[in-house]
């Protein structure tokens, strides 16, 4: 099964696995604050994936309004392209897919956290190019690769629909507030209850 792993964002990437084997990793084309949706659509059409796993990004404490909006716009652009092309997808929080691989929360040093993810991706896929031309880590590539791997591992023997259903948030139980006892108006001799 061909699976896309997508790390959204302006420095994100797309990884394509076919039956668990790496096909390609491509940086997401973006300019200023927008993803190039035509390029993304062309890439998806060329590879014809059967499923996609995309990281569900959200705002973080201390993050500016502009960067939060940019992240949201990027995620919306990606899911819009996937939907328009009929590719079923799963949105998954970083804690869930990273926890699956035994990677601890990102509350520790950010650079060490990114390196831990890249080291695992490199061990699983030694031929993967996770660094840019100047040698710097392109963490979007390693995230995209592990997102695709997550999909591959969870779809072995399962359908895309079942995977999506298993990751849907469970509805919260409604809690009823107990009303404070009030003095009944009917007990007041001057009140007429109709």
Keywords:
194 residues, 7 strands, 6 helices, single chain, 40% helix, five-stranded mixed sheet, Nucleotidyltransferase, domain 5, alpha/beta, two-stranded antiparallel sheet, 16% strand
Q: Any overview of this molecule?
A:
The protein contains six helices and seven strands. It is α/β, with parallel strands linked by helices. It has a single domain, classed as 2-Layer Sandwich (Nucleotidyltransferase, domain 5). A hairpin with a 5-residue loop joins β1 and β2. The chain starts with a strand and ends in a 28-residue tail after the last helix. The mean pLDDT is 81.
Average pLDDT figure: 81
Please tell me the CATH architecture by its name.
Answer: 2-Layer Sandwich
Q: What's the shape?
A: globular
Main structural class:
alpha/beta
Q: Terminal Cα separation, in Å?
A: 69 Å
Order of helices and strands: EEEEEHEHEHHHH
Number of helices: 6
Low-confidence segments = none
Determine the fraction of residues in helical runs and give it as a percent range.
Answer: 25-40%
Task: Find the CATH topology.
Answer: Nucleotidyltransferase, domain 5
What is the gyration radius calculated from CA atoms? 23 Å
Please, how many domains? 1
């Amino acid at each position: 099964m061909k699976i896309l792993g997508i790390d959204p964002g302006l420095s994100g990437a797309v990884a394509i696995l076919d039956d668990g084997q790496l096909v390609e990793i491509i940086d997401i084309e973006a300019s200023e604050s927008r993803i190039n949706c035509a390029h993304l659509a062309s890439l998806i059409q060329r590879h014809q994936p059967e499923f996609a796993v995309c990281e569900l990004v959200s705002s973080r404490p201390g993050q500016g309004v502009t960067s939060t909006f940019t992240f949201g716009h990027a995620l919306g652009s990606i899911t819009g392209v996937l939907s328009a092309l009929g590719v079923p997808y799963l949105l998954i929080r970083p804690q869930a897919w990273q926890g699956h691989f035994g990677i601890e929360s990102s509350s520790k040093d950010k650079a060490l956290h990114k390196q831990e993810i890249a080291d695992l991706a490199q061990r699983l896929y030694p031929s993967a190019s996770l660094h840019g031309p100047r040698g710097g880590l392109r963490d979007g590539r390693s995230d995209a690769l592990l997102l695709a791997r997550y999909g591959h591992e969870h779809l072995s023997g399962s359908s895309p629909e079942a995977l999506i259903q298993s990751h849907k948030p469970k509805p919260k139980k409604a809690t009823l507030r107990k009303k404070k006892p009030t003095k009944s108006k009917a007990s007041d001799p001057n009140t007429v209850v109709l």
